[in-house]
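quick one before i forget lol
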Amino acid sequence: MKKTATKTVNRVDLTFRAFSDRTRLRILHLLLGGEMCVADLVTVLRIEQPSASRHLAYLRKAGLVAVRKAGLWKYYALAAAQTPFHQKLLECLVCCFQEVPEIQKDQARARKVREQGGCCPDSAAKTTTTENSGSCCSPS
């Protein structure tokens, strides 16, 4: 197999493994609402900081999240889709994962955190959202 084909297969495998974990799905779903710092993700998800950081590192390696540094703080956001495959996964994230039981509770806690401005300075100033360009079940 050629090097680029192997790299693509590895990226797809890594992406599917990233989507196979409930906590990582919850993180990705939260980031649909805009970027968040690790401390706010910890608060919303009710998990330990090292666990959140490990999941975020995995999502970064899979190319699903991006990080922005501001002083001592790091803010995580969904990475822009680079391929049609990645775009469809983001669309599925919007429409297909509402059945994960924790997601509704996470969204309610995230709303409260965002309304209060988050724990980090300037955390509400740089939010981005991913627009849903269509259902994951229908062609674009």
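fyi The longest strand covers residues 65-70.
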